[in-house]
Design a protein that fits this description.
The complex is a heterodimer of chains A (467) and B (279). Chain A is an alpha/beta fold and 467 residues long. Helix content of chain A is 33%, strand content 16%. Chain A has a 5-stranded parallel beta sheet. In chain A, helix 15 links the parallel strand 8 and strand 9. In chain A, helix 5 packs across helix 8 and helix 9 packs parallel to helix 17. Chain A is globular. Helix content of chain B is 29%, strand content 32%. A 7-stranded antiparallel beta sheet of chain B has the order 6-1-2-5-4-3-7. In chain B, strand 12, helix 6 and strand 13 form a beta-alpha-beta unit. In chain B, helix 5 runs parallel beside helix 6. Classes of the chains: A alpha/beta (467), B alpha/beta (279). The interface between A and B is large, with 41 and 41 residues.
Chain lengths: 467, 279
C-alpha cells in the first residue's frame, strides 16, 4: 500500500486581484488528475463516518471509490441516487462541519476534500451528459399528486425524491426562474447560475412539472391546491422576509436589504446593466452590516460592481461570525475590510435623501446569550462615523407570512416559522408537510435539502397508505 | 409566456393590454396589482390591474409610457407575448358600504379606479368620481367612468376640455358643500395623491391612496418598496398598496421613487438610440 498522503490536493482559484473585478467563479475545480489524486487519499475505512455526517446520506466512500477506480459514471450514479443537486452541494455545502469533519483522516491529517470531489463528479457529468443514459429508471406511476411550494433546495430535493418514488409532482415557484435562494441569493462567482439551471433541469427530467410565476397564498392557496386534486402539499418557501436594523435613517436611498441587493445583482443581472434593464446603485464606499454568509456575498458583490472600499460591520468579534471560514478568508483576500465590535446607531443622509454616512457604536462582549455567543454591549460614548454611499443590511431573514396567513390550521411560532415535526416534516395541518428555512429559520442549503428528503419519505409513506 | 389578446391605444402615450392569464383572472380584486417582465433582460415592474374577465381568463392592464420598460411594452402588439405576469398581488382595496364615496383619478389611473368605483357602486354607495388630465388629448374613459358613478367631474390642467384646474379643486368644493362625504379614494401620480390627502385632511374624511414605489419581486422579499405610514415602515407590495393618505410620509416616497433617476435616464437613452436605429 502506498504511503498515505497527509495533504489534500489544493483546488485552483482565481487570483484575488483578478477575481475581485469579475463575477466569474472563484474556485475553478479539480481536473481529472487532481480528482484522482485526491480520491486516492481515501482509506475506505469501514465505518463511513463521513456519510453519517451528510444530511442527505450520500454514500461518500462508495462514490470516491468508483472515482478512484476510474469509473466516473458509477460515481455519478452513486452520488445522484441520494443527492439531486451535487453541483450545488459541492460548491456551497459547509463540508467542514458535516462530512469532512467526520473523516477518519481528520485526526491526523487533512480530511478528504469531499466537497471538491463531489463538485468534480457533478461537473464531469455535465460535460459528458450525452455519453450517459438516464441514471435512474423511474418506477410505475402511483397516480398520486403532490404540490411542492417553492423551488429552493428543500423543494427541489423533495420533488426529485417523490418523482423517483413514482409520484406526480408539481413545483409552484413565485419568481420567474426556479431555484429560490440558489438563483436570487448566492452570487454567480460562488455558484454559477448555469449550474443551478442544470440541476433544476435534471429535477424536471424526472417528470417534475414546474409552474413559475405562481405565488401560493395569492394565485392559489394551499387549501385550493388540496381541493384541486393534490393529495399532499410540501411547503419549502424558505425565509424570504428581510430583517432591518430599525435605526433612524434606514429608509434613505442607497440602503438595501441584502435580499434586494442580491436579487438585483444575481436574479435580475444588474451587474450587466444596461444590457439588462434592472439597475443597482454602485457604491464607492459600501458598508455591509452582518457577519453571515449573506453578508460576505453582499460585500464581495459590491466590490465586484466597482466599489473602492467595502466594510463589513459586525457587532461581535471574528470568532462569533456565523459565516463559513472559507468565505471570510476569500473576502479578506479580496480586500474587504472587517470592522468587528461595530454596530450602527443611525444612518446619515445628504440633501438628495441618499445615505452619506453611518454612525456606529463600538461594542464589547459580555456574558453569553441564548445563542451561546457572547452578547455585544454598547461602549458608552464610543460613537464614530464612517462615510458611505451604499449600505447593505444583512441581518438575516424570517419566513414570508404569505402562506401562513392564508392557510387555516397551519401553526406558526412567534418567529413566524411553521411548526413541523423535525423528522417527518409533518405540520399540524393534515396533508401538509414543511421543511427548510420556513421551519428552522435561515439555515443552510444542505439542511434544507435534508428536510426535503425526510419529508419526501414521510409523504411517500402517507401516499402509499391511501387506497 | 402570456399572450396579449388585445391592444388599445387609449391616448397617444397610454395603452391598454388584455392578456391571457386565467389563474390571475380567477382571483383578481379591485386595487390589486401584477408584476410584469417583458423578457429575459427586462425589469420586473408593478402595474395595477384595470379589469379582468374570469370567464375569458383575461386580465387587463393600462400603462403610460414613462421609462424603458413601459416604452418597450408599448412596442408590443396583439398576438405578442410577455415572459412573466404574476399576481394578483397586494391587499385588495377595502370595499364596503360607506355612504358617499369620492373616487379621484389622475391621468392613466382612471383605468385602475374603474374597478374600485364599480365595486363601490355595487355595494350600494353613492359614487362621485373626479378625473383629471393635463390636456384634452389625454382624456379617456369619460363615459366608462360615468357609467359606474352617480356623478362625474372632469378637469384638465390647461382648460382645453371640461373644467380648468386640478382635481383638488372640485374635491374641496364637494367637501365644503355641506353634503356628507364618507370616504375618499385618490389614485394617480404621487404628488396628486399627496395633495388630495392634504385637501381632505382638514375635513377629517378618510382618504385611501394607492402607493407606487419601486418594486423588485412584489411578494415581500426585498423591502425595496418600503414606505413610512404613521411612523412605521411598511412594504407596499404586501402591506399595501392602499394606505391611509393622511399617514403617509410623502417626502420619503418622492425621494425613494427618484433613487434610480440617473440609471433610468441612461437606460432609456440607450434604448431610444437603439430603437431609432432599428426603426
Amino acid at each position: 500500500m502506498p504511503k498515505l498522503n497527509l495533504n489534500r490536493v489544493s483546488m485552483p482559484r482565481q487570483d484575488p486581484r483578478v477575481r475581485s473585478k469579475n463575477f466569474n467563479e472563484v474556485a475553478l475545480g479539480y481536473d481529472a488528475e487532481q480528482a484522482l489524486a485526491e480520491a486516492s487519499r481515501c482509506i475506505q475505512c469501514p465505518k463511513h463516518p463521513c456519510a453519517e455526517g451528510c444530511p442527505v446520506s450520500v454514500d461518500i466512500p462508495d462514490f470516491i471509490k468508483a472515482l478512484h477506480e476510474g469509473n466516473t459514471p458509477e460515481a455519478v450514479r452513486i452520488l445522484k441516487s441520494k443527492n439531486a443537486l451535487p453541483g450545488i452541494c459541492g460548491r456551497v455545502c459547509p463540508q467542514e462541519t458535516q462530512c469532512e469533519v467526520a473523516c477518519t483522516l481528520e485526526k491526523r491529517a487533512a480530511p478528504i476534500a469531499i466537497g471538491r470531489l463531489e463538485r468534480y463528479v457533478a461537473d464531469w457529468e455535465r460535460a459528458h451528459k450525452k455519453a450517459l443514459s438516464t441514471p435512474f429508471d423511474l418506477p410505475k406511476p402511483t397516480g398520486k399528486r403532490v404540490a411542492v411550494v417553492g423551488s429552493g433546495p428543500a423543494g427541489l430535493t423533495c420533488a426529485a425524491d417523490l418523482a423517483k418514488m413514482g409520484h406526480s409532482v408539481t413545483i409552484f415557484e413565485a419568481l420567474h426562474v426556479a431555484g429560490g435562494v440558489l438563483m436570487y441569493g448566492i452570487p454567480e462567482f460562488r455558484l454559477p447560475k448555469e449550474i443551478v439551471q442544470g440541476e433544476v433541469d435534471y429535477v424536471a427530467s424526472l417528470g417534475v412539472e414546474l409552474k413559475l410565476d405562481s405565488v401560493i397564498g395569492k394565485t392559489d392557496t394551499v387549501d385550493e391546491l388540496l381541493g384541486n386534486g393534490y393529495d399532499a402539499v410540501f411547503l419549502g418557501t424558505g425565509a424570504g422576509l428581510p430583517m432591518f436594523l430599525g435605526v433612524p435613517g434606514e429608509n434613505l436611498n442607497g440602503i438595501y436589504s441584502a435580499n434586494e441587493f442580491l436579487t438585483r445583482v444575481n436574479l435580475m443581472k444588474a451587474y450587466l446593466f444596461s444590457r439588462y434593464d434592472t439597475p443597482v446603485k454602485i457604491g464607492k464606499k459600501v458598508a455591509v452590516i452582518g457577519g453571515g454568509n449573506v453578508a460576505m456575498d453582499s460585500a464581495r458583490c459590491a466590490l465586484r460592481l466597482g466599489a473602492d472600499v467595502v466594510y463589513v460591520l459586525y457587532r461581535r468579534s471574528k470568532a462569533e461570525m456565523p459565516a463559513r471560514h472559507e468565505e471570510v478568508e476569500n473576502a479578506e483576500e479580496e480586500g474587504i475590510i472587517f470592522k468587528f465590535l461595530t454596530n450602527p446607531k443611525r444612518f446619515l443622509g445628504n440633501q438628495q435623501n441618499s445615505v452619506a454616512g453611518v454612525e456606529c457604536h463600538e461594542m464589547e462582549l459580555g456574558e453569553p446569550d441564548e445563542s451561546g455567543r457572547r452578547r455585544p454591549i454598547v461602549k458608552p460614548g464610543s460613537e464614530f462615523t464612517i462615510d458611505i454611499d451604499v449600505a447593505i443590511v444583512a441581518l438575516g431573514t424570517t419566513p414570508n407570512p404569505l402562506i401562513a396567513s392564508t392557510t387555516e390550521g397551519l401553526k406558526t411560532t412567534r418567529q413566524g416559522t411553521v411548526v413541523a415535526d423535525e423528522t417527518s416534516g409533518k405540520t399540524l395541518k393534515p396533508k401538509v408537510w414543511a421543511g427548510g428555512d420556513i421551519v428552522t429559520g435561515a439555515a443552510t442549503v444542505i439542511s434544507a435539502m435534508g428536510a426535503g428528503k425526510r419529508a419526501a419519505a414521510s409523504i411517500d409513506t402517507y401516499l402509499r397508505g391511501l387506497s | 409566456m402570456y399572450k396579449i389578446l388585445l391592444r388599445q391605444d387609449l391616448v397617444p402615450n397610454i395603452h391598454l393590454f388584455k392578456l391571457d392569464a386565467p389563474a390571475i383572472a380567477r382571483k383578481a380584486k379591485p386595487g390589486q396589482f401584477v408584476m410584469v417582465r417583458i423578457d429575459e433582460k427586462g425589469e420586473r415592474i408593478p402595474l395595477t390591474i384595470a379589469d379582468w374577465d374570469r370567464k375569458e381568463g383575461s386580465v387587463t392592464i393600462v400603462f403610460m409610457e414613462v421609462g424603458t420598460t413601459t416604452h418597450r411594452l408599448a412596442t408590443l402588439k396583439a398576438g405578442d407575448s410577455i415572459a412573466n405576469f404574476v399576481g394578483p398581488l397586494g391587499v385588495p382595496t377595502h370595499i364596503e358600504k360607506f355612504g358617499t364615496v369620492v373616487c379621484v383619478a389622475g391621468g392613466f389611473a382612471v383605468a385602475v379606479i374603474m374597478p374600485i368605483a364599480r365595486a363601490m357602486k355595487e355595494k350600494g354607495n353613492k359614487v362621485i368620481s373626479i378625473m383629471g388630465f393635463r390636456s384634452k388629448n389625454l382624456v379617456f374613459w369619460e363615459d366608462e367612468l360615468h357609467r359606474v358613478s352617480d356623478q362625474l367631474i372632469v378637469t384638465t390642467d390647461d382648460g382645453t376640455y371640461a373644467r380648468k384646474g386640478l382635481v383638488t379643486e372640485p374635491l374641496k368644493e364637494l367637501l365644503s358643500s355641506g353634503q356628507k362625504i364618507d370616504w375618499v379614494i385618490a389614485i394617480g401620480p404621487s404628488v396628486m395623491m399627496k395633495f388630495c390627502a392634504k385637501t381632505t385632511e382638514p375635513f377629517g374624511v378618510k382618504t385611501i391612496v394607492s402607493l407606487n414605489p419601486i418594486m423588485v419581486d412584489g411578494t415581500g422579499m426585498c423591502g425595496c418598496c418600503r414606505v413610512s405610514v404613521g411612523g412605521a415602515t411598511k412594504f407596499a407590495c404586501v402591506d399595501g398598496p392602499d394606505f391611509d393618505g393622511h399617514q403617509v410620509d410623502w417626502d420619503l416616497l418622492f425621494a425613494r421613487q427618484k433613487v434610480y433617476l440617473d440609471e433610468e435616464k441612461r437606460s432609456f437613452d440607450e434604448w431610444l438610440t437603439k430603437h431609432k436605429v432599428n426603426a
